[in-house]
Amino acid sequence: MGTPANPQKFAVSVAPSRIDGTGAFAAEAIPAKRKIGEIRGETISVHEAWERAKKLERIMIVEVNERRAVDASRSADPLRFTNHSCSPNAVLRIRQGRIEIYAMRAIEVGEEITCDYGETHHAGQRPCGCGAPNCRGAI
Question: Residue 37: CB partners within 8 Å, gap ≥ 6?
Answer without folding.
Answer: 7, 8, 9, 10, 12, 77, 78, 79, 100, 101
